[in-house]
Amino acid sequence: MLGRGLALIPGIALCGIITAVSLGAQRLEEHVFIHPYVEALVIAILLGMAIRTVWQPSERWLSGIAFSAKQLLEVAVMLLGASVSFAAIAASGYLLVGAIVATVVVMLAVSFSLSRMLGLPTKMSILIACGNSICGNSAIAAVAPVIGANSDDVASSISFTAILGVLMVLGLPLLIPLLGLSATQYGILAGLTVYAVPQVLAATVPAGIVSTQIGTLVKLVRVLMLGPIVVALSLVAARRRKLHADQAKVAAISPFKLVPWFIIGFLVLAALRSLHLVPDLVVAPVTKTAAILTVLSMAALGLGVDVRVLSTVGGRVTAAVTLSLLLLLGLSIGLVHLFR
């Protein structure tokens, strides 16, 4: 075990350097623009891809890179549960919560079907559907290890989703005067359509504090949908693995085998947080740790990407993500008129 641990150090250290550079770039964005328009995890995966383009990692680096891309990402997803409280969701009202859940479910089905119609593989279609419908890059990163998506699928999904996410932040405020939206309506629209929480803040701050608060709340409900969706996907993946195994006799399967350990950890931490058993002082450092581990994992994924694969699927992925986002925007615009 000591030998294995030492073998991981070079690859993890390389991912750590990329992570530090990416976080520094995001901090510079925050200093200049107040809110980051391109998140550190996007910068990390692009830097990793750029390095991989000019350099092929040897065996000395690969084990640490693989560990960072999978195990560390699973730890990050688990830790995010400590920042989730179900009380805030219950306080927002059943109509709004129901509308958000319905929007996510409908867009999951529509985005997946659209991606498959465009000829994309099943796993990439799932990533695109989850990214567009739930919470962009974070959803893609969380779903990827559950369905066994490879680095190329993850990188393709995140890269194009990130580009459109930035365009949404820049263009969404223009709809306020065009559609005559109130602060409440615009907050709901931003929360339903913008991918990342920092981007929701960037898109709603110009519209006022009411839009920012409502947008953040709606976004939180969307993020909470990630837990049930990932659990459902893990159950489907387990069933498919069992069918492919073609076993005549199947023993009782433990829930820990059906549902990945990190998803169980996520739900446990969320429940403890909702019961006020996780102190407020712990939430901030745990969330920060999860964010850093996620960026580090994205750096590892970038280092494992073959850019030539991206070039073969870029057009179809771009079309799938763009059309899915336009459909989500149209559905959300129709929905916000219910909330005056």
Structural class: mainly alpha
Distance between the termini: 60 Å
Domains counted in the coordinates: how many?
1
Major sheet: size, sense and barrel closure? Answer: none
Helix content: over 70%
The geometry reads as globular
Q: Low-confidence spans: pLDDT under 50, at least 5 residues?
A: 246-258
State mean pLDDT (0 to 100 scale): 80
Regarding quaternary structure, how should these chains be classified? single chain
Helices and strands, in N-to-C order? Answer: HHHHHHHHHHHHHHHH
Radius of gyration: 20 Å
Verbal overview:
It is a single chain. The chain has helices spanning 2-33, 40-54, 59-79, 86-90, 94-117, 122-147, 151-171, 175-179, 183-193, 197-204, 209-224, 226-245, 255-258, 261-274, 280-303, 307-336. By secondary structure, the chain is mostly helical. The chain has one domain (2-336). Helix 2 (40-54) runs parallel beside helix 15 (280-303) and helix 3 packs parallel to helix 14 (261-274). It is globular. The N and C termini lie far apart (60 Å). Residues 246-258 have low confidence and may be disordered. InterPro entries: UPF0324_pro. Its main location: membrane. Belongs to the UPF0324 family.
